[in-house]
From TrEMBL:
The keyword Magnesium does not apply. GO terms for cellular component: membrane protein complex; plasma membrane. One of its GO terms (molecular function) is transmembrane transporter activity. It comes from Arthrobacter pityocampae. PROSITE patterns: ABC_TRANSPORTER_1, ABC_TRANSPORTER_2. Keywords: ATP-binding, Nucleotide-binding, Transport. InterPro entries: AAA+_ATPase, ABC_transporter-like_ATP-bd, ABC_transporter-like_CS, ABC_transpr_LolD-like, MacB-like_ATP-bd, P-loop_NTPase. Residues 24-259 form the ABC transporter domain. SMART domains: AAA. The keyword Hydrolase does not apply. This is ABC transporter. PANTHER family: ABC TRANSPORTER RELATED, IMPORT ATP-BINDING PROTEIN.
Length: 260
């Protein structure tokens, strides 16, 4: 997954690995749950970089560690060994308050559940993180996002007045508003039908090409993963391969080879 070149003279490098060079980087990351014979090794010595302005999908069989990896990369879960960076900021061992600020300012999230506040309008849901942080909304950027996502005529509507696809578009807009270093998607189309899911995935794809966004998505769906530039494959907590510019058929073949 990473170059074999060693660059221990660079900031952040560790012996045997190149320095971090992505929107998100991991070096020799391991994570276990439990102890002794009952321990579950969720991540085993994982090292990789997620390039800026690219859409990456993480896939693998159930229990492969893909969700654990995403949670650790996003600073939502701790690791037992290794180092992690978001951009040029190392998050390994970062104090809770600093980690919370970093996630608020530099990370966006899109989940399977839309996680919208039912009493707020679409616009209020989009701007909620900025409001909670006491910041000022960039109205020009909000307008661009809303127009790009086709939400201009839905901003005054509350969630129950929106379709599932529109609600997920609001969630995507909320994630984009702060211009984060990276957006993490956890099965973002899992609650959508295939047509609506395709529309949301196309919007995520466009956010990379048109807005310079970096996206890391965990999914079990080969069709969803085919929208990504790159598919990272995992099994038993380890990285076992990757695909570039793949199709649902090539992804299915790769997963079948893993026993998924």
């Amino acid at each position: 997954m990473t170059s074999s070149t060693t660059s221990t003279d660079l900031p952040g490098a560790i012996p045997g690995f190149p320095a971090p060079c992505g929107a998100v980087s991991a070096r020799a990351v391991s994570k276990s749950y439990g102890r002794g014979e009952t321990a579950v090794h969720a991540l085993r010595d994982v090292s990789l970089d997620f390039e800026p302005e690219r859409f990456t999908a993480i896939m693998g069989p159930s229990g492969s560690g893909k969700s654990t990896l995403m949670h650790c990369l996003a600073g939502l879960d701790s690791i037992d060994a290794g180092r992690l960076w978001i951009g040029d900021t190392e998050i390994t061992g970062l104090p809770d308050a600093a980690l919370t600020r970093l996630r608020r300012d530099r990370v966006g999230f899109v989940f399977q559940a839309f996680n919208l506040v039912p009493t707020l309008t679409a616009e209020q849901n989009i701007t909620l993180p900025v409001a909670l942080a006491g910041g000022t909304v960039d109205t020009a950027w909000l307008q661009r996002i809303s127009s790009s996502l086709g939400l201009d005529d839905r901003l005054s509507h509350r969630p129950h007045e929106l379709s599932g696809g529109q609600q997920q578009r609001v969630a995507v807009a909320r994630a984009l508003l702060t211009r984060p270093d990276v957006i993490f998607g956890d099965e973002p189309t899992g609650n959508l039908d295939s047509v609506t899911g395709g529309e949301v995935l196309s919007l995520l794809r466009r956010s990379c090409s048109e807005m310079g966004q970096s996206i890391i998505m965990v999914t079990h769906d080969p069709v969803a993963a085919s929208y990504a530039d790159r598919v990272v494959l995992m099994k038993d907590g380890a990285l076992v391969g990757e695909l570039e510019q793949s199709t649902p058929e090539t992804i299915l073949g790769a997963l079948a080879a893993l026993g998924a």
